[in-house]
Amino acid sequence: MRHRFPPSRLALLFLITGISAGAETPLLPCQGSDSNAWHNCVGKQETFAGGVYEGGFRFGKRDGVGQWYEVYVLSGRQRQIYVGEYKADMRHGRGEEIDGAGNIYNGEWQDDQKDGQGVMKYRDGSRYVGAWKKGSPKGQGTMTWSDGRVYVGEFSNEYGGGQGTLTWPNGAEFVGEVNDGTPWGDGTLTYPDGAVLTGRFERGKYVGPSPNHGGR
Length: 216
What we know:
With 216 residues, this protein is mostly beta strands. The protein folds into two domains: 1-116, no CATH class; 124-216, Single Sheet (Histone H3 K4-specific methyltransferase SET7/9 N-terminal domain), CATH 2.20.110. The chain has one helix at 7-17; strands at 3-4, 28-29, 41-46, 51-58, 61-70, 81-87, 90-98, 104-110, 113-121, 127-133, 136-144, 150-155, 162-167, 173-179, 182-190, 196-202, 205-208. It has a 17-stranded mixed β-sheet that branches. The longest helix is centred in the N-terminal third of the chain and has 11 residues, at 7-17.
């Protein structure tokens, strides 16, 4: 069953997402029960799996500002919420998602995936700020783990996977290749007491001199 979408609800969506309607004419509620025929209007669309979309439609597709959520949870499935922009039935533009694990992403989307600049607040208290590509951290960013470690540099996934600087709460600092949130490759580790160790590391442990640096 599909229902009309109250204009007051659309105004709330603009407020939540921080997306301004600008000079555009406010959309009217969609008419009729066939969502495939809805165009330049706002409506409510329900799925058999319990998902609900409320927001803009264009040429029968979700388009503009809207929100998607689950009204009930199937066995083994967590509730998921998205509020933001859509284009041709896909999340596209800016939006915020609370995923099934309780992680919160706020940032840019493209073709239904996290893509561009965004912030992810993980359920365990960790936080990533930076570039995303096709749903994963990729490019330059900063990851702060719940245990106090901070990595600033290149990312190929949420654990690093590139060149950067990794610091610990005790003042230790590693500059070089970081993967899986730990030194993994060539680099220099500076201990809290000022001692310096340069060479190759694997899984956070020094394994010897690297071809490009002397070791100690």
